[in-house]
Amino acid sequence: MLKLPRLLMFVAVICLFSCSTKFHKDIVEANKLFNQMKFKDAARKLLPSANSSGRDQLLAQMECGTMLNVALDYENSNKLFLSAGELAKKIPISISQESIALLTNDTKTNYRGEDFERVLIHMYAGMNFLMLDQNDSARVEFKRVNDLLTSFKSEGLNQFKQNIMAKYLTAVAFEAVADASNDTDDLEYAYIEMKQIYQLDPSNPLVKRDLVRLSGKLKYDDEYQTWKARFGNYGDSPSQVVVIFQNGMSPIKVSRGKILDDESMRIALRLAFDSASLKTKEGVTFAAILAVLATVENPIPRYQRRSAKSDYLTLEIDGVEKARSYMLENIADTSLKTLEEKYTTIKTKVAAGIVVKAITAVIAGKVAKEIAKSSKKTKGVAGLIGAITGGIVGAGLIMQIEPDLRCWSTLPANFQLALAGIDPGKHNVKVKFYANSAVISEKDLGDFDIPAKKKFIINCRTVN
User: Fold this and answer.
1) CA 249 to CA 339: how far, in whole Å?
2) pTM for the full model?
3) Is residue 191 part of a domain?
């Protein structure tokens, strides 16, 4: 039977963590500013959380890093992403935090990031280094992307097979280093990356032209003739304009609804209850568990898609359309697949934890009633104590079973690239955004002095 001291410990834990964090309010306000395209103002809202240790520090750094990337402040963006990359590897969860996590929802523990989010930390860092023309450092970050993907693949996480956007930008970084140092080995590495991308996505037009171009640049005559016969003649232009298009808004986490509405979870709960020992259950029935869980939300959230009004963009240079963008990484699809795979994997474990909480809540209610009945000295006060403790512990424990909806909310729905060969010199660059093959908006990105024999990279983001 559950004793009073333990009962009061539960009350203390629940009261201790009943307040919402300041970060939740700040992220809501920051997202409003972000959606209004006030990117630096949005970042300022979260910088205190990003610079202070706490359970939301990693998430604040990821959000701030994205906001500053879109604001074209690549140096400060990378300070946050490099810090986030280190923090993601070593966020400590103490024994006390783990104990609290068994009694309350996961927002009481440090945010560790979904696996695909941890990959994107390094991809953003690599992108920032490319924008800063620090190509050696960019290669290091893109290698970390590949290392993480290899790790996930070894753990059987199939949706992380590759990140084609990161592989493409890896090739860009290696070619840039090769052009600066006349290093054939680096150029060969870029070519190998492109061949791997072609194996992963043979329909991608960007890689087709690069296979022709790079094989010619390397003077691999046989391969050059093979690619040219297959795809057409793509010469190596004196310079290239590359537009990284961060399109729309990624999905966000929402509740799956009531836990008992999911038939598979009901089955998992039943199995967990049946496997619990009689001593653990202390006479509690499964019917009592279902009654207690009637209004409880499923603690495992799902992702809900958000807006990505544009399908693609076209790149205009000096008023002439030169290229269109193609999707290389679909963050929306990856995030949805991630959480559904996670749901399947951890559902049984979560159900077991919920059953323990539910049994504890039912027993707590019984103990409160026994306290009231057995006390003769306090009379009416005992009934009040019983009602208060039983109500707080019974309802409090169960109401704390709720989904952790924290997620990297400023990510785009997908990453796209557009590139066009161009002569060096001053050029005006514009983009037009298309949906259902019709122009829905356009933007003048500005006048740029394109250097010779380089890829000139421009960062472009939409938020709807």
Assistant:
1) 17
2) 0.85
3) yes
